[in-house]
Design goal:
conserved putative lor/sdh protein from methanococcus maripaludis s2 fold; 3 helices; Elongation Factor Tu (Ef-tu), domain 3; 4 domains; OB fold (Dihydrolipoamide Acetyltransferase, E2P); alpha+beta; 458 residues; four-stranded antiparallel β-sheet; six-stranded antiparallel beta barrel; 28% helix; 33% strand
Length: 458
């Protein structure tokens, strides 16, 4: 009875041994040889080449310590103009965006009544000044009359005293003496009357002077009322937005027009109190605005708040920035405040930093004889003594802890853990481990020659 081939159960995905293709055998053989080579059987297997990395050398140079904050740019002089008195807009003499000079008329309001009052007050000054001139003339005349009466009075007095002596010597009669006394008393009364007239003229003059002063005060008052209806530029600057139109009735609380001085700006920003001892007026700052392509503008500190905020422990600092054509009130910017300088700081690119938890590390490259991490029995993974693993020096990466100080513009200042002149990895970090050979010059084998070990036997 002929032998029968045993029936095999159906199993999708299973290929019977007699149907294995030549291609499948090739794949299996390649995988076997690859695993044998990686296992290091006899030392002739293929080895993974060192990862390619890019390094930079740490430098030593002066480092300016900066504090960075944010703030809003404000014009040193920016004002929203309001009327002092209610009224109707009769003229808008400027356009938005126009440059104006201090004192230039911007807006006029209806001022018929005030101008009439000014005219009336001016006429009152003229009238009172004319009366004052008349009173001054009256004083001059009264003074002349008083002087003349005084002369007559002195003469009559002298004549009367002389006749008193003559009567005692019996050269004149009593009647003649009485006549001289009568003339003396009459001149004395006239003199007193003229003095009273002079005093009255002077009083009238003083009253006229007071009237002139009142008229001038009334004139100034009415001129001030009229000027309240004319809005003038308080400083040299640029007209901003207008909020009124011709014919609008406005009140003192209503905004008419905005005006900005573009020549000088200020920016306010908070600084922690721990930096207070390093702040001083005139301290340089650099301000950058993202809206302007982060162009740097120079400024100087001009105000340090004497009061520290008890909640935030911050002190408010203000700096002045010279105006430029592209600066605008309200721009949001970043302020870099120069605090002090470290003369011999060790500096590396920020890309070299490897954070691990709360600590920071860098991979330092040393050209040395590579010694792989040995097994507990003192051999390497290739079962060779660790001391014989490498004979020629190569580039080896060592993980080294560092203390990071300050950062800026992609650079890091190292306070400790790294010396100037050491090479650190800045690219290829994801492929590197501690005590690992690395390739600084491109994909080559560990010994420096192109790797061919993996191609034998295929």
């Amino acid at each position: 009875m002929p032998s029968q081939t045993p029936l095999l159960p159906k199993n999708n995905g299973f290929t019977p041994p007699h149907k294995i293709t030549a291609f499948s055998l090739t794949l299996l053989l390649s995988a076997s040889l690859f695993l044998h080579g990686c296992a290091g059987g006899g030392g002739g297997g293929w080895q993974m080449p060192p990862p390619v990395v890019i390094v930079k050398t740490s430098t030593q140079s002066p480092w300016t310590v900066e504090y960075t904050a944010t703030g809003t740019l404000e014009s040193e002089n920016k004002v929203d103009l309001n009327p002092e008195s209610p009224g109707i807009i009769t003229q808008i003499a400027v356009k938005e965006g126009q440059f104006v000079h201090r004192g230039q008329v911007l807006i006029r309001m209806k001022a018929d009544k005030q101008e009439a009052q000014v005219q009336q007050a001016a006429e009152g000054i003229t009238t009172s000044q004319g009366n004052l001139a008349q009173q001054l003339a009256d004083i001059s005349q009264a003074q002349a009359r008083a002087n003349s009466a005084n002369v007559k009075y002195k003469q009559a007095q002298s004549e009367y005293h002389r006749y008193q002596k003559l009567l005692a010597e019996q050269f004149v009669s009593q009647l003649e003496l009485d006549q001289k006394r009568s003339a003396y008393e009459s001149s004395q009364a006239d003199y007193q009357e003229q003095l009273q007239g002079l005093a009255a003229a002077r009083a009238s003059y003083n009253q006229a002077r007071s009237s002139v002063a009142q008229a001038r005060s009334s004139y100034r008052y009415n001129v001030a009322l009229a000027s309240e209806l004319v809005i003038r530029a308080p400083f040299n600057g640029v007209i901003g937005q207008k909020y009124v139109a011709l014919g609008d009735y406005v009140i003192p609380t209503e905004k008419l027009i905005t005006m900005v001085d573009p020549s000088l700006f200020k920016i306010q920003f908070p600084v922690p109190e721990r930096y207070l001892s390093q702040l001083y007026p005139g301290q340089p700052v650099q301000v950058q605005f993202e809206a302007l392509g982060n162009t740097a503008f120079s400024g100087l500190v001009n105000f340090i708040d004497p009061v520290i905020n008890p909640d935030s422990r911050m002190v408010i600092v203000k700096a002045r920035v010279a105006g430029k054509n592209n600066l605008r009130h309200g721009l949001f910017g970043t302020v870099n405040l120069a605090l002090n300088t470290i003369p011999d700081a060790v500096v590396i690119p920020e890309e070299a930093i490897v954070p691990q938890g709360e600590k920071t590390f860098v991979y330092v490259i040393r050209h040395e004889v590579y010694v792989p991490n040995p097994s507990p029995d003192g051999t390497t993974k290739n079962d060779k003594p660790a001391s014989e693993a490498r004979k020629a020096p190569s580039d080896v990466a060592h993980l080294q802890e560092v203390l990071v100080g300050h950062r800026k513009a992609g650079l890091v200042q190292i306070e400790s853990g790294l010396a100037a002149g050491e090479s650190v990895i800045v690219s290829g970090l994801q492929k590197v481990g501690d005590n690992m050979e690395v390739n600084l010059n491109g994909p080559k084998a560990p010994g420096g020659n192109p790797s061919t070990a993996g191609s034998k036997g295929h």
